[in-house]
Amino acid sequence: MTDAHRVGIANDVALAKGIRPGMALSAAYALAPSMHVKQRDRLREADAIEHLAAWAGQFTPNVVLENQAGLLLEVSGSLSLFGGLEPIMTRLRTGILALGFTASMACAPTARAAWWLALSGKETVIREHDSLAAKLAALSIYTLGWSSDQLTMLTAIGTNTLGEVMALPRAGFAKRFGRALLTELDQACGRIAEPRRFFTPPEQFEARLELPAAVEAASALLFAAKRLLTELAGFLVARASGVQHFDLLLEHDDLPPTVITINLVTAHRDEPHFTLLVRERFDRLTLPAPVYAIALRAPVLTPVSGVNLTLFPDENEASTDWTRLVERLRARLGAAAVHGLTIVAEHRPEYVVRAAEPGTQPPPLHFGERPLWLFTTPRPLLEIDAKPFLRGRLALMAGPERIESGWWDGNDVARDYFIAQDEDRSLLWVFRERSDARGWFLQGLFA
Which neighbouring-strand residues pair with 66? Predict the structure, then answer.
């Protein structure tokens, strides 16, 4: 096996027998009267190929756009990662079908040979340089992408296959057809190098899919959304990134698009998890009007490192489980219904704990001793001879800790806090108001 493997991926075009590229439309109709013809949109084709190239970057960073009609992938460095050439091609084919495309694929030691084989529809795998010329010889010249004038001249001299072309005298061939075609032949056979410019995926992800018919139920949009999410996941792998939020835009005819924002606790690039969250949102969504197109935008990418698998579950796997549970609950109940708790730099006990994003790490704060259980509203205590009573007289064990704060928001306090012991030896956190004669209060209980 050689150390170079190129996979060519071309758009799969089915032609009726006898119909050739460049043939007049009237002649094609004569051969195939039931043929269905569509106007070609080259801009949309180029956009689709670029999106496919960004998705294919998960298999190799060396992806080439070939004439805006297909892709070339250098996969030599990825064989060990994916378990060989066949698994890579299988995953490519499966993914391309999931994205809604059909393709012709071939593999060869040179990029030109892989591309010509893919264009011809011969899904061949060639592993050795020595067999290149023999395998290419049977290709029809009409499948190589050459100009109609060149094809007409070649046919006129009785050459219809690549083998017949390669058998022509090199000097005469170069004089009649130019050095460019001869160079292509040498590149295909591996006689000379063929430099290529690799594709660079964009910094942000944005894709759009027009629906074949208007959709009136949100749940029916999941199939189209899954195609976009599959493309997003492949793009994120290629960029070694994840996303913490993305937007789905459901486009209507006469109304602004319905925007669905999916927020994640941590950055992910897992397509099944994305699909699960979108399904939860679609199940609760009532569309204001039929949807004609759906778009997906992920404007902010976050670097994500790979995950090392272990034999036994560890803390990292447990952390992933709870974050995904939170994300699913938010998708079902709404982001405001599920949140975490954190502490803030606030001396007043009733304002220390606040709602926050799940997983938020609290700042390092250094206060005095604090109880585990704090009452939402301090409970008043009896006072006898200036001493606090609960079930009996409380013994003040430590304190006072003076807290004076909150003058800026109108909820200022002036208190002296003590750690007190009840008759049953339980420890309490009590305070005495200093601003007036309101007396003693119970703030919390120690464990």
Answer: 70
> Into how many domains does the chain fold?
3
Contacting residues for 145 by C-beta, under 8 A, at least 6 apart: 67, 69, 119
Q: Are 96 and 274 in contact (CB under 8 A)?
A: no
| SS3 category, 330 | helix
| Ramachandran bin of 439, using left for φ above 0, alpha for ψ from -120 to 50, beta for the remaining angles | left
Q: What are phi and psi of 169, to 5 degrees?
A: -60, 130
Does 111 fall in a domain?
yes
Same domain, 240 and 379: no
Is the C-alpha dihedral spanning 333, 337, 341, 342 positive or negative?
Answer: positive
Instruction: Tell me: do 85 and 217 sit in the same domain.
Output: no
- Compute the distance between CA of residue 183 and CA of residue 179 in angstroms, rounded to an integer: 6
Q: What is the DSSP string of 389-444?
A: ESSSBPEEEEEEEEEEE-TTTT--EEEEEEEEE-TTS-EEEEEEESSSS--EEEEE
Mean pLDDT of 422-427: 88
Q: What pLDDT digit, counting tens, does each position of 287-313 carry?
A: 999 999 999 999 999 987 665 556 665
C-alpha dihedral (267, 294, 217, 259), degrees to nearest 10: 60
Full residue range of the structural domain in which residue 221 is found: 206-307
Average pLDDT, the chain: 84
pTM: 0.70
DSSP state of 161: B
Residue 323: how many other CB atoms lie within 10 Å: 17
Residue 166 shares a structural domain with residue 259: no
Q: Is 98 exposed, middle or buried (0-12, 13-18, 19+ CB in 10 A)?
A: middle
Whether residues 84 and 165 share a domain: the answer is: yes
Give residues with Cβ within 8 angstroms of 158, minimum separation 6. Answer: 164
The last residue of one of the domains, among 257, 278, 307, is 307
Same domain, 41 and 129: yes
Residues 113, 49 share a domain: yes
Q: What single DSSP character describes residue 153?
A: H
Structure confidence by residue, pLDDT tens digits, 342-371: 777 778 887 777 777 776 777 776 667 788
40 shares its domain with 107: yes
Coil, helix or strand at residue 384: strand
Q: What is the pLDDT of residues 106-146, one digit of tens each?
A: 999 999 999 999 988 878 888 888 888 888 998 999 888 88
